[in-house]
Specification:
alpha+beta; Beta-Lactamase; 2 domains; seven-stranded antiparallel β-sheet; five-stranded antiparallel β-sheet; 29% helix
């Protein structure tokens, strides 16, 4: 079939709009503030071979790794119309346990699935040793309930026994039930819209243009890679520590560009570590997809075709390709950010005018859990905090935003204080935290929370001892800081810690600033 470029554009927007509508359905029907307010979720549509065709503008670390989850579900389950599969196992296509993927086949007049609709949402608790399921762990078995690919819906009927097992292993079962139902509704929305599209254009046309969109993205990516000068580019950066051992962890990349192909070799990076910052290979692939997609200045689908001209080499058993039963809860949120920093650092040597300085390089994960003094029920609050973006050749870095592998909103102060026994004492920009330069790095944030009931706090954060780098003479951004106030005294805490607070104690997080770009003007004048 000949591909009509106008119809190709139509299908590009139709598929993307389906993903966006799925996201709206999930957001509006979810129970937890983490999904409803922060929008810690992602939606996408896949072809029969589990190749991603389109995605919504959601979370990069979710979307780049979701194809492996869909592929795992297809491999493990025979799917019928009305079925849906749930999974979160990082070693079968997931990322970390709080991120639960729900996928559904789309039958549209064919005896086999025409497409797959899938979404991933971060649940604010999935069990494990710490409220929020983001512990300082040394094994995945401490991090929560592991869900292999299992059918949560069978021919449209909920598997209540499976759901009951899951809900018995979490601290906030009613909230989880509501969020799982929202994920199911999102997929039902996607199924309905794809079936409408198939009825209008026919299944053959729909499949053909789905493949054409993947091919189109691959061609554009090949052209983009061909514009990078041929050569080998090496860059090294470090994670602060793994939460258990206070030693830096090297992330090493050797990137080779040859014509319209790129090879990214991470095999010299650290072995997997005892603590929770190990990343599975799916996360590393997500980071590569994200960075190279950012090099494209056209409005193309960020789909599986973008990785076709790129080869990613990882070493099994390393911190970027961890093996079971490695602890992985921080790999998805923290190590992913450092992988991006390393890829951008290598590219800055090849195309320096196109690459920004390092952004804050962390998601500043905060989990608080305990019992509500009003309802007597357990609560779990989870949030990631924004920081400074890196400056670029074009402008200063943005202040106080999520960057790179996360794309969530903040949780509004009103929502926090309404839903949890917490009081937000301060929330604003952290002045003078961005790196100096002709274009200065963005400012970090300050978030101070007073707990109104005894609770357990876990913080997973990075860039507390290694600064976000500046480029082309720009200065580094300021490191972040974590502090706890008890008995009227502030105590500095490490980047990764677990603590127990009493009513009236406070937690203060100062997030890192972004790196600057080019030397500061005064320094240039002095020269």
């Amino acid at each position: 079939m000949n591909i009509n470029p106008i119809l190709l554009e139509v299908f590009k927007n139709r598929f993307s709009s389906i993903c966006e509508e799925m996201g709206v359905a999930l957001t509006r029907t979810a129970f937890s503030p983490n999904i409803k307010e922060r929008r810690d979720l992602s939606c996408a549509v896949f072809d029969p071979d589990a190749q991603m065709i389109a995605q919504a503008a959601h979370i990069p670390v979710h979307l780049g790794s979701m194809p492996l989850s869909v592929k795992s579900a297809i491999m493990h389950k025979e799917l019928e119309d009305g079925d849906m599969v749930m999974l979160n196992d990082p070693f079968q296509g997931g990322t970390h346990l709080p991120d639960v993927t729900v996928m559904a086949p789309v039958f549209a007049g064919e005896p086999y699935p025409l497409f797959y609709a899938a979404n991933r949402a971060h649940h604010s608790d999935i069990g494990g040793v710490s409220p929020g399921s983001m512990p300082l762990s040394n094994s995945i078995h401490q991090e929560g309930l592991i869900i292999p690919p299992l059918k949560i819906l069978r021919r449209g009927e909920m598997d209540e026994q499976l759901l009951e097992i899951i809900l018995k292993n979490v601290r906030t079962p009613e909230e989880r039930r509501g969020d799982f139902s929202a994920q199911i509704m999102a997929n039902l929305t996607g199924i309905k819209r794809i079936q409408e599209l198939s009825k209008k254009y026919g299944s053959v046309t729909l499949k053909t243009y789905g493949r054409a969109l993947i091919d189109y993205s691959a061609r554009v990516m090949q052209q983009t890679v061909s514009e990078i000068p041929d050569g080998k580019y090496r860059f090294v950066d470090h994670l602060d520590d793994d939460g258990l051992q206070r030693s830096m962890i090297p992330i090493i990349l050797e990137m080779t560009i040859e014509k319209d192909r790129a090879v990214l070799d991470f095999s010299e990076s650290s072995d997997q570590v005892p603590g929770c910052v190990n990343a599975v290979r799916a996360i590393t692939l997500s980071c590569v997809l994200y960075v190279f997609r950012c090099l494209i200045d056209q409005d193309i689908p960020a789909n599986s075709g973008c990785l076709r001209p790129i080869r990613v080499i990882t070493r099994p058993g390393s911190v970027l390709d961890a093996k079971y039963p490695a602890a992985v809860t921080g790999g998805n949120v923290e190590t992913s950010q450092r992988i991006v920093d390393v890829i951008l650092g290598a590219l800055s040597k090849a195309v320096p005018e196109r690459i920004p300085a390092a952004s804050q390089g962390t998601m500043n994960n905060l989990s608080i859990g305990g019992k509500s003094p009003v309802s007597g029920q357990e609560f779990t609050y989870y949030e990631t905090l924004g920081g400074g973006m890196g400056a670029s050749m074009a402008k200063n870095g943005e202040n106080g935003v999520h960057s790179h592998m996360t794309n969530t909103l903040n949780t509004p102060v009103e929502a926090i204080e309404h839903s949890y026994p917490l009081r937000v004492r301060a929330y604003g920009l952290r002045r003078n935290s961005g790196g100096a330069g002709k274009f200065s790095g963005g400012e970090g944030l300050i978030r101070e929370i007073e707990v109104l009931a005894p609770c357990e706090v876990t913080v997973l954060s990075e860039r507390r001892s290694t600064q976000p780098y500046g480029l082309q003479g720009g200065r580094s951004g300021a490191c972040g800081e974590n502090l706890v106030k008890r008995d009227g005294k502030w105590q500095k805490r490490p980047g990764k810690f677990r603590d127990f607070l009493d009513a009236g104690d406070r937690l203060l997080i100062r997030t890192p600033g972004g790196g600057g770009f080019l030397p500061p003007e005064r320094e240039k004048n002095e020269r």
